[in-house]
Amino acid sequence: FYCIVNIIAEREFFPEFFGPNFTWENVFPAAKSLWDNKENEIGSQEIRDLLSKKNASKEAASLVLDLFRN
Fold first, then answer.
1. Where are the extended beta strands (E) located within 31-70?
2. What distance in Å separates the CA atoms of residue 61 and residue 30, rounded to the nearest whole number?
3. Is 53 helix (H, G, I), strand (E, B) or coil?
């Protein structure tokens, strides 16, 4: 995955279009589907829950400190 939300969720939550797949014919229907699909509300809550479990600043600082310690 390239989209940070998909990486965090470990699944394709948002369609990813790059290179020759980034066309109006591909992007518009996918965007409309995201807008119209009520299941996205559940997925959005799942992402919020995943993001709120940890303190990102503390996690990042800890990882940086670990690099200097080793």
1. none
2. 37
3. coil
Check: CB of residue 18 under 8 Å from CB of residue 1: no
Q: What six digits make up the tokens of 32?
A: 């409309």
Type of residue found at 47:
I
pLDDT digit string, tens, across residues 41-60: 767 788 888 777 777 778 77
First to last CA, the chain: 30
What is the spatial distance between Cα 18 and Cα 68, in angstroms, rounded to a whole number?
A: 36
Q: Measuring CA to CA, how many Å separate 29 from each of 26, 35, 36, 65, 68?
A: 6, 10, 10, 45, 47
pTM recorded for the entire structure: 0.57
For residues 7 and 1, the answer to whether their CB atoms sit within 8 Å is: yes
The single-letter DSSP state of residue 11 is S
Structure tokens at 1: 């995955």
- 10 DSSP assignment: T
